[in-house]
Amino acid sequence: MHIDVVDSECFRPMLEAEIQRYAQQRVDLLIVDDIADWAASRTENAKGNPPAMAVTESITGRWGIVLRRAIDAAWIESIVARIEVGANPDAREVLCTPETFLRHLVLHELAHLENGWGQEKENDCDAWAFEKMQSIPAFER
Ligand SMILES: [Zn+2]
């Protein structure tokens, strides 16, 4: 599996449409070079340095998804390997392009927001994201 994301900004229109299709409220998509750096500058609490993160503004309650601009092949491989043993043995077949990988990644973060699920619910978030991806036939996308 050798896919990498060079600039997730290229997929912004598709990702924003995908998020909004399943979100109950407006979600801001923020693309940053490094999530740990971004979080440190915002006094947000990022665990380690994730490829994506769901955030809720403490004052306004606005929802946001922070996404890393570039994600290399080794990183994607380790994420897909985790999903494969956790939520979906077919993850490798489904998440085989930068587009599908990113769609799943942002829907995973949306699952945290929509369901109020914490970090202990990673497999549930992955499964929720796959469910949404399969709910619309490919020809309508
Ligand atoms: Zn998560």
What class, by secondary structure content? Answer: alpha+beta
Mean pLDDT: 93
Global morphology: globular
Uncertain regions spanning at least 5 consecutive residues = none
Strand content: 5-15%
End-to-end CA span: 24 Å
Q: Please give the number of β-strands.
A: 3
Q: Kindly provide the radius of gyration, computed on alpha-carbon positions and rounded to a whole number of angstroms.
A: 14 Å
- The residue fraction in helices comes out at 40-55%
Bound molecules: zinc ion
Number of helices: 6
Oligomer: single chain
Explain what this protein looks like in three dimensions.
The protein has 141 residues and is of the alpha+beta class. It has one domain. It is 48% helix and 12% strand. It contains 6 helices and 3 strands, in the order αβαββαααα. A 3-stranded mixed sheet has the order 1-3-2, with helices on one face. The protein is globular, with a radius of gyration of 14 Å. Zinc ion binds next to α5 and α6.
